[in-house]
Write a structure and sequence with these properties.
Elements (H helix, E strand, L loop, with lengths): L14 H9 L16 E4 L15 E4 L11 H12 L2
Antiparallel strand pairs: 1-2
């Protein structure tokens, strides 16, 4: 997103993937296991605090075999980001 207030991070060591798999609702009913939270799009308010564990996002979408209502749709993600950025 072309806005100086937006940051993009790459998690090459999958540390956040592991942390977010239990913060986000990724548990699979069939196996009881958590999916790794990769290919997710997380939006936070500007006052989000990252401490020992990462914060829950204010809004998120994914490209995983999870809740289809949260499946990535660019226009919807952009609307939610604008709300948080107060544009």
């Amino acid at each position: 997103m072309p806005d100086v207030r937006v940051s993009h991070f790459w998690d090459g060591n999958t540390e956040l993937v592991e942390a977010y798999k239990t913060i986000l609702p990724t548990k699979q009913e069939s196996s009881g296991r958590f999916l790794k939270a990769w290919d997710v799009y997380l939006l936070f308010k500007c006052d989000a605090q990252w401490r020992h564990t990462p914060p829950a996002p204010n809004y998120w979408m994914h490209q995983l075999p999870l809740d289809p209502r949260r499946k990535l749709r660019g226009a919807k993600l952009a609307r939610e980001a604008r709300k948080l950025l107060k544009l």
